[in-house]
Amino acid sequence: MAHEMIGTQIVTERLVALLESGTEKVLLIDSRPFVEYNTSHILEAININCSKLMKRRLQQDKVLITELIQHSAKHKVDIDCSQKVVVYDQSSQDVASLSSDCFLTVLLGKLEKSFSSVHLLAGADAAEWDWLCAECQQHLSQARLHPRVALPASACE
């Protein structure tokens, strides 16, 4: 089903290059079910998965996306509304192919209202996924040695 364009696609190599450069802060959101997230995920990714209740609350603006990110994170997240956001679910290939009522479309739309740069990571096969997790883990671990200053969550609302 066609819908207004939200977000843009990003490929695995570009994501790794972004993380490798260290010049931009990247917020990673894993929108897969918790079991898949728990099995394997990109280090520092925040799991925000679909439930009918959460989808409805987002659609009705009963929860702010910044609140959902903070609630879903394992630790306090410094949210900067100018940072890049990359969402992945390991199966979606293209933003244009998403149905207008699926959770991922709702999530991307809400993120786009709060962040200046929102991207959907193109789905990767199993070999690419393993490579991506390893690459991202290496670069994010190095980035911890050089923390960047971020605005508080309230600055984005």
Write the layout of secondary structure elements.
Blueprint: E1 8-10, H1 12-21, E2 26-30, H2 34-39, E3 46-47, H3 52-59, H4 65-72, E4 84-88, H5 103-114, E5 117-121, H6 126-143
Parallel strand pairs: 1-5, 2-3, 2-4, 4-5
Helix pairs in contact: 1-6, 3-5
Would you kindly provide a written description of the structure presented here, covering whatever features stand out?
By secondary structure, the protein is an alpha/beta fold. The protein is built from 6 helices and 5 strands, in the order βαβαβααβαβα. It has helices at 12-21, 34-39, 52-59, 65-72, 103-114, 126-143, and strands at 8-10, 26-30, 46-47, 84-88, 117-121.
Summarize, please.
This protein has 157 residues and is of the alpha/beta class. The chain contains 6 helices and 5 strands, in the order E-H-E-H-E-H-H-E-H-E-H. Strand 2, helix 2 and strand 3 form a beta-alpha-beta unit.
Q: Per CATH, which architecture?
A: 3-Layer(aba) Sandwich
Q: What is the straight-line distance between the termini?
A: 30 Å
Whole-number mean pLDDT: 76
| Major sheet | 5 strands, parallel
Q: Structurally, how many domains make up the residues? A: 1
The tally of beta strands, per DSSP, is 5
CATH class: Alpha Beta
Query: Which regions have little confidence, pLDDT < 50, spanning 5+ residues?
Result: 1-5, 143-157
- Alpha plus pi helix count: 6
Order of helices and strands, N to C? Answer: EHEHEHHEHEH
CATH homologous superfamily name?
Rhodanese-like domain
